[in-house]
Amino acid sequence: MILNLIAFTSVLHESSMVRSSHEALINELEKNFDRVNILTVEQAAELPDDSFCALFIATGGVECQVKDAFAQLPDPALLVADGTHNSLAASLEIASYLREKGLASEVVHGTVSQIAERLVQLSRLHDVRSKLAGKRIGVIGTPSDWLISSGIDPEAAKERWGVELVHLPLERVYALYDAITDAEVKDACEALSARAKGSVEPTADDLIKAMRLATAIRRLVEEENLAAITLACFRLLERTGTTGCLALSLLNDAGIMAGCEGDLQTLFTMMLVQAATGKASFMANPSKIDTYSNEVVMAHCTIGLDQTQGFVLRNHFESLSGVAIQGMLPQGKVTVVKVGGRDLDQYFVTSAYLQENLNHHNMCRTQVRLHFNQPAGYFLRNSIGNHHVLLVGDHAEVLHDLLTAAGCTRVK
Length: 412
Known about the structure:
The chain is of the alpha/beta class. It folds into 2 domains: 2-132, Rossmann fold, CATH 3.40.50; 136-410, L-fucose Isomerase, Chain A, domain 2 (3-Layer(aba) Sandwich), CATH 3.40.275.10.
């Protein structure tokens, strides 16, 4: 991580005094960042657009300097003030002025360790927003009727996170699907079958149809330059005779976050997780909840193959058709997270322990039993919708810090 400090000092102070007068703060920042650059406004203007910058208010009396540099200030404007040389008083005045002018601002103040901690949080948030900025989310078809609390406000999503929704009709998929021959996907089917630990219900014809659909959706993703998709799965089944489970699994393996049923809140959560941790994740239903033992069973009919220790080819649970994935996940620490609300401004996150993989006949194919480190009663009292996201490893603190820094409200 690199921190670029745009220094402002009054005419009564030499610019060379910035480091010597704030030595304790600069030393602490250098412990937390790979590099700390102290720059002028002109030097900062030469940095790449995605550079992480903050305004270092080193002294009082710099209000007019910041005002004159308004057009070159980063958005949001982070004003670092350790309180010496009247820097805090100047920062409060500047921050008020910037907000009046429509520029988001925050005064980063406290002990040197508190300032460093906050800047690290904001740097990670900046990094995630930079990765998400301009990403196109394909909404293929319309969300499932039963998802009555999983939509998002497109303008809020773009304003807060920089992502763009692109609505695409299912007819685009149908046209691509119809044009793909069985012969085109024969090798891919054989490779998948060889990799699987077994196949229970699907026939060779089922696998061919599912791979044709997966190929069609991948081509649409490439044509539209999509970073993520959500799919109206059940309408696809009516037209093609197969489900999207395998397609979503293979897309997630390819780094294209893909979710079921048109659930945009959960799909965005998967994108955020990928940007923050570099990991793919598993979108699932809470299927059983024991509030006394804090145990939760989560299940769904698709998961990225690379997230598993092995998988079996099954059919889709509800429709008993198509090709679904029964994946076995590694026992150990995991994280469960959901970002939601129409403005994507709420979140739930907890670490958990994956105790075992299950094989119940009456729920979706990939099934895991978890022990939560927070009360599982959240699901019954305040759950943010139905689907939640699971990823291997304990990333709860990183995601909590990130979402707190973004101004999101934690739901418990």
